[in-house]
Specification:
alpha+beta; Immunoglobulin-like; 3 domains; 7-stranded parallel β-sheet; 6-stranded antiparallel β-sheet; 9 helices; globular
């Protein structure tokens, strides 16, 4: 006990000024690091969490942090907290929504890039206790989570464009201050993180963001400090150091079983609340979760509560619909691992013990036929989880699954395979894809790779990555007749195509194939929309491109499927 008290005293000295409710509440801090492997496993088993972006900026309906000095002048933005009084905030209701959605943990933005703090911090007056609301949001939400059996974690922005010691300021951290003190800011950061850990912990995870001036050494110093307080906590990859898990943003991560990962994604378009924001469809929401699990990752799904503290009804409705699906089929998601079959353009697989679950997320309209390589373990049973008939046959070293299109479910058709032995240690293998273009090389007339368009990720490879509503390709605004091209690696017979557009911008397009040395138009139309299926006269070609002849605004293409 003396060692524990001494350690707590040393921690308090290190970040002097932080408050601690009582020594007894922190007495579970261990004197020797115990590692966080068990915690990571628990976090991976959870699979589904709620991200919450919220603060005074909701009064304006613009993006948190990023609109400071952009849509909203800095002085106006920094004084919004003086009007912030979310009288309808109820932490128990927020947690109840997360539970109804089937989420297992919550991560709250305790401090975003704008520097405003949602807890009773002693490090700055720029916090919720000096607003008209005058209530500790972090305290109330952490207590509500524990009461209802939901794990609680905190988001804390590594950068802080409000703090005068941080070298960069708004808009977007693009302006360098004449005077700053990164060492002093690092101490400030540690003191605040110490408050969160000691006053509201133990925490499930600490989620940092946008390191900017923090390099790997400084970031690792923050992580080491955190582990002195809570050895088993897991930390993401945005302190500047590698941390415990990767965080692909606004897109589902790829198949990765050698390092944990978590996709962070908005349920609408903006992280913070904005009026009349478009909420994703149930198909988009559920398939993002399923594809994350199939890649062996988690989904941290963001909601943006309103200025009065209540969650947006449309977002709540969608989350509850997800929860209803998970009540029936969550056993194919929770506590599973991705694989053993790598993602294909038709969907993904998850596994648990002797069972493999194939999640068929889309199919092009012909009789579903999936070819699976032999895992070296006998298949004892095969069934469609939602009901229906399925045929399983062997062909050499492959297993063939076939069923009729009438058995396809609107969002996710699940096939359950029961093997004679445990499949958890089987090395992942490729399965067949129905399209010719899946994961094939892409070229374009122009490309805004890495550019944030409405806070969604733009990348050229999205056109063939099987993601038909996440990441997308978008041309340069100066490109008057942009095109995007798929290289099939070798000449292939093409008889059909499916095009997926983000929005409804295209007003005239041509699908062209390179025949000999000439581009030949094989189809044309006036619009694409969310999904357009094309039947083509059989053409043999290696390269096919989509040319946008006319468009009302900058077009975005999710995917090109060639059949």
């Amino acid at each position: 006990m003396k060692k524990i008290r001494l350690k707590i005293l040393l921690i308090l000295i290190l970040f002097s000024g932080a408050t601690v409710r009582s020594f007894s509440q922190s007495s579970d801090i261990k004197t020797k690091p115990v590692g966080n492997e068990k915690r990571i496993q628990e976090w991976k088993d959870a699979r589904f969490g709620m991200f919450i972006h919220w603060g005074p900026v909701t009064l304006k309906g613009t993006e948190i942090g990023w609109s400071r000095g952009d849509e909203i002048p800095v002085d106006m933005y920094d004084n919004l907290y003086k009007q912030f009084n979310p009288a309808n905030f109820n932490a128990d209701e927020w947690v109840s929504v997360a539970k109804a959605a089937g989420m297992k943990y919550i991560v709250l933005t305790t401090k975003h890039h704008d520097g405003f703090c949602l807890w009773d911090t002693r490090q700055t007056d720029y916090n919720i206790m000096n607003s008209p609301f005058h209530r500790d949001v972090v305290k109330e939400l952490s207590e509500a989570c524990r009461k209802q059996g939901i794990e609680f974690g905190t988001y804390y922005s590594t950068t802080d464009w409000h703090n005068p010691d941080f070298p960069l300021t708004s808009p977007g951290g693009t302006i360098r201050r004449e005077k700053s003190n990164l060492e002093a800011y690092t101490t400030y950061l540690k003191r605040q993180v110490g408050e969160l850990l000691l006053n509201y912990g133990p925490l499930f995870t600490l989620w940092f963001d946008v390191p900017q001036e923090f390099d790997a050494i400084r970031g690792q110093g923050v992580i080491d400090y955190i582990h002195q307080i809570q050895p088993d906590i897991i930390v993401n990859d945005r302190t500047g150091a590698k941390g415990d898990f990767d965080t692909p943003e606004q897109r589902v991560g790829g198949f990765q079983i050698n390092r944990p990962w978590e996709t962070c994604m908005t349920i609408a378009n903006q992280w913070a609340w904005k009026p009349n924001d478009e909420v994703k469809s149930l198909e988009q929401c559920l398939q993002s979760l399923v594809r994350s699990a199939g890649g062996d990752g988690n989904l941290l799904f963001n909601v943006g509560p309103k200025p009065d503290g209540q969650m947006e009804p449309l977002q709540v409705e969608r989350l509850k619909e997800m929860g209803q699906w998970l009540q029936k089929y969550g056993y194919t998601i929770y506590e599973t691992r991705g694989g053993p079959f790598k993602p294909a353009d038709w969907g993904v697989s998850t596994r648990k013990g002797n069972f493999v679950y194939l999640h068929i997320l889309k199919w092009p309209g012909r009789t579903p036929k999936i070819t699976l390589p032999d895992l070296g373990i006998e298949i004892k049973n095969c069934k469609l989880v939602q009901g229906g008939n399925i045929n399983l046959t062997k062909s050499g070293q492959n297993t063939i699954l076939e069923f009729t299109t009438k058995e396809l479910q609107p969002i996710n058709t699940i096939v359950e395979l029961e093997y004679a032995g445990n499949v958890m240690n089987v090395a992942p293998v490729e399965s067949n894809s129905y399209s010719l273009s899946y994961l094939k090389p892409v070229n374009a007339s122009s490309n805004l790779k890495g550019f944030w368009s409405n806070y969604l990720w733009v990348e050229m490879s999205a056109v063939t990555n099987g993601d038909w509503f996440g990441s997308f390709w978008e041309p340069d605004p100066k490109d008057k007749q942009p095109w995007v091209e798929v290289d099939l690696d070798k000449p292939e017979k093409i008889s059909g195509a499916i095009l997926y557009e983000r929005g409804i911008a295209v007003k005239a397009f041509e699908l062209q194939a390179l025949v000999g040395n000439q581009w030949k138009t094989i189809s044309k139309g006036k619009s694409i929309g969310s999904k357009l299926e094309l039947k083509l006269s059989k053409t043999t070609a290696q390269k096919v491109r989509l040319v946008m002849k006319e468009f009302s605004q900058l077009p975005g293409i999710y995917e090109i499927v060639l059949l």
